[in-house]
């Protein structure tokens, strides 16, 4: 019985009991206690213990009712904490949650350090949980979800796997975002920054890529050469080739690879000027320069270059020079491939 209902029914019962008693026993009854005599109607003497019992019962019910109320409040708070814990675990961002009830403390804190993956269809969950599940499914299917507009992005770390996947999806959907990522590289996970750089290398011209040179790796150098070989117009000039070549720690085979592309794109004068300069500045480019001299049949220049170096260096080229001087009509690529050129 609810406390309010008991209060009113109890009062009505006491009034009725007192009235019935007074109706049948309208007389008085006296009690002497410690020299004090109390003379009251019999009905009042009946009402007094009923009132005392009523008050004590009210106190008892109020105590247990309050205890049950606060117990329910704890369960409600724990249920809300559990909802939040499930929500953040679904978003791959488990957070610290605290529980009041012992029954919850025995298992729910596991969500503080766990990520949840939904492998089937679920129904009847709260709107908040259903929404998070929908976001996750879209992101995992390759779709970009604007988490910023959902007001959750600022609560997710840049290393969050869901955030990383979502940003990768955005780069695929909007390549312009790649440039935004690289302009604030520290704010993004390394995997996102790497994908952004790969995207720009695959799409932008050398002029726009120039400012991102310090971030590039040697593999990007090869990707750019492949684009040039596919005859993409990316602004590949001898001056730009020099800038990019100096940025990377190129070895001898790398300069040979650059030379192969340059031979197809530049005029002889441009190639000679480029590789002569590179050979003076970088020892690793000397074999490429020699290769170029033989390609253009500039034997005197090749001989002069070889004389300036130790006789144990560039042995394949020295052997080719001897054959050339003896009027053997070999092309350099008939005898010297890139691997041999760099020995």
Brief write-up:
This protein is mainly α and 343 residues long. It contains 17 helices and two strands.
Topology:
Elements: H1 3-24, E1 28-33, E2 36-41, H2 42-90, H3 102-105, H4 127-140, H5 161-173, H6 176-183, H7 190-203, H8 206-209, H9 218-229, H10 238-247, H11 252-265, H12 268-281, H13 286-295, H14 299-307, H15 315-325, H16 332-335, H17 338-341
Antiparallel strand pairs: 1-2
Give structural notes.
The protein has helices at 3-24, 42-90, 102-105, 127-140, 161-173, 176-183, 190-203, 206-209, 218-229, 238-247, 252-265, 268-281, 286-295, 299-307, 315-325, 332-335, 338-341, and strands spanning 28-33, 36-41. With 343 residues, the protein is mainly alpha-helical. Among the domains are: 3-90; 231-343, no CATH class. Strands 1-2 form a two-stranded antiparallel ribbon. A hairpin with a 2-residue loop joins strand 1 (28-33) and strand 2.
Helix/sheet category: mainly alpha
Unreliable parts:
none
Shape: rod-shaped
What's the main sheet like? 2 strands, antiparallel
Overall pLDDT score: 88
Radius of gyration: 44 Å
What share of the residues lie within helices?
55-70%
Helix run count: 17
Proportion of β residues?
Answer: under 5%
Q: What distance separates the N and C termini? A: 98 Å
Topology pattern, helix = H, strand = E: HEEHHHHHHHHHHHHHHHH
Q: Going across the major beta sheet, what is the strand order? A: 1-2
Strand elements, count: 2
């Amino acid at each position: 019985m609810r406390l309010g209902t008991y209060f009113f029914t109890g009062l009505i019962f006491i009034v009725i009991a007192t009235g019935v008693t007074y109706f049948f026993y309208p007389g008085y009854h006296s009690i002497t206690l410690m020299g004090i005599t109390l003379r009251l109607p019999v009905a009042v003497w009946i009402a007094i213990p009923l009132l005392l019992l009523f008050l004590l019962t009210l106190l008892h019910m109020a105590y247990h009712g309050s205890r049950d109320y606060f117990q329910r409040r704890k369960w409600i708070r724990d249920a809300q904490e559990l909802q939040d814990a499930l929500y953040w675990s679904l978003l791959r961002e488990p957070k610290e949650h605290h529980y009041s009830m012992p029954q919850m403390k025995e298992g729910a804190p596991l969500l503080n350090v766990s990520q949840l993956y939904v492998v089937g269809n679920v129904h009847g969950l709260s709107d908040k949980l259903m929404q998070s599940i929908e976001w996750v499914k879209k992101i995992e299917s390759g779709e970009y979800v604007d988490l910023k507009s959902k007001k959750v992005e600022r609560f997710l770390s840049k290393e969050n796997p869901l955030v990383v996947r979502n940003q990768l999806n955005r780069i695929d959907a909007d390549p312009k975002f790649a440039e935004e990522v690289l302009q604030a590289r520290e704010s993004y996970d390394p995997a996102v920054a790497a994908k952004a750089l790969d995207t720009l290398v695959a799409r932008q011209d050398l002029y726009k890529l120039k400012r991102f040179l310090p971030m590039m790796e040697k593999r990007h150098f090869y990707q750019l050469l492949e684009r040039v070989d596919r005859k993409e117009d990316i602004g590949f000039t001898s001056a730009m080739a020099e800038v990019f070549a100096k940025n990377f720690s190129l070895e001898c085979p790398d300069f040979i690879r650059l030379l192969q592309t340059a031979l197809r794109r530049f005029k002889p004068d441009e190639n000679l000027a480029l590789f002569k300069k590179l050979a003076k500045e970088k020892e690793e480019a000397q074999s490429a320069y020699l290769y170029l001299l033989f390609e253009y049949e500039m034997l005197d220049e090749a001989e002069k270059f070889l004389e300036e170096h130790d006789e144990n260096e560039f042995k394949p080229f020295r052997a080719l020079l001897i054959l050339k001087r003896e009027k053997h009509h070999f092309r350099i690529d008939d005898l010297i491939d890139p691997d041999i050129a760099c020995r």
